[in-house]
């Protein structure tokens, strides 16, 4: 063995030391998080156990456990039983060893379940030393980012291969050792040296030594201060909570994270590789699965509930395909979120992005065709561009894809034409079908015509499981409650107000006129004496006292104007908007940005259809709905603008309602629709039910309510129900 072999072994050892160094640095960073988390988690567990009555222990033994004497002895909670232990329980009159042992065993089982389910929430408004220490420990891993993750994964693979090879190649380090190694040992050493040399050379070509060195530096870097770590947490809490779930192994239920897909589909998706070369952020487990689903199934609908990161999953798919050689991609979205898409692609990936919108859109389109990257355009603008030839587009992403559920519209025709030339298409929507299976089928028809022909209304009528199985190859949906264990509490409050005399007068006038939309906003027609407006002021004032941001949603511009005037006097300089459908997209995003940047309390006014789609308002922790909406999904989407991944405070939702009129009727109808939506769409399924529950047009609904209210109040109609939002 000569110098060349010795140098090869020495190079392999240096690489192996770097590999072990990264692994050790990462292990210490993870251990620091666990050490900071343990006392917080233990206290939460203890608090839960102290609140669980001893009687619950009977449930685990199907009532066979006799606890009367234990309770007489002063033991009231599961926590007290665990503190006492079997020996102390046996000192109680009438409690034998078997009963004591069984009681403690049942208590331990409950404690184990509590440990698995209790989630740590970090309150940025009330930081205390232990949670601050946890944030600081997590900060190290968050700052290290995806590059550190890639380094650790690379190191794990190299360590597994290099360790045994270096042991086999050890005799090659010296002539004497080779001499005493024997013939078989020398042959193994020669072969091992060749593999070590190949591994180190390949690692050098791929830049692995630099990757490992940078990761070690990043994993040893501490935050500038605790305050800096807390500020960073508030800005990107989703990444912190994601890492916390990963470190603690508190992943969501695998079946839920995989959208309850059948095994044959889920297995194929799991086998799909995922390249993160062009991605700047880490994915959560369910997000990685969603990205793999889009890649493995090629033409699909990602229907995750609002706030779960459909955008980042789409960007991850774009980044993967770019790493595999694709050069041109197109995102089609409503104009209101075009700027948001552009920002997200720039922030979350290294991909070049070109907005194709406005008066210069043809020039921008030509530039994108020549230079490649991701073009972002609107449904309306898409109609003015020629679809490329087959193979010219790596992936077509259609956001808010329910906009094209009507195949007779021009926007649906344009999307279908582009989708027909592209091998990969990804539809994004939280509400792919609101009222009919046929609407859902129309989306599937664009993606996979053969599958659409096999899906019919009977699958929906048969139940959500049947529907999920039927559409599994094309449709994936997950819900917040299943996969976002860290999302702060969402508190819904229906604020029922008794209308005063002036409210009643305005309402009766609207009923007599047969004007349904005027009936819905009659509570704001007399601002000087409006019961709803008074309550809205109280909620906003309470939020101001606590330094909380508020979003006020209404379907009506004049209601928002009334609210603006009412709040402007007390909240001067802190009221933004109104954000309406007539506000240009760029201005909408600036309004949201200014609202988020405002120090302390602020109020954003938004028309619910304009502000409830696409824009992220997680700076707000109070949501006020001025009136109930006609569809459950409209309210769901609006609330999800604030209660979404990235929110760090509990979200309070106040829905303002008046008794005895249109609000009560709408709430009852909305509850029926919500139950149907939850039964089907929230489990990757949508179905038709009775026509009265779902298949009612807005106009038909309006006429019915107007007629019922005219009969109740004895007011004759002067004109048909109108819609003038």
From TrEMBL:
PROSITE patterns linked: HELICASE_ATP_BIND_1 (PS51192), HELICASE_CTER (PS51194)
Residue ranges annotated for the Helicase C-terminal domain, each copy included: 535-698
GO molecular function per UniProt: helicase activity
Keywords in alphabetical order: ATP-binding, Helicase, Hydrolase, Nucleotide-binding
Record domain Helicase ATP-binding: where: 291-450
One protein family per Pfam: SNF2-rel_dom
CDD domains found in the cross-reference section: DEXHc_Snf (cd17919), SF2_C_SNF (cd18793)
SUPFAM superfamilies, sorted: P-loop containing nucleoside triphosphate hydrolases
Keyword NADP tagged: no
Protein's UniProt name: DEAD/DEAH box helicase
Species the sequence originates in: Streptomyces nigra
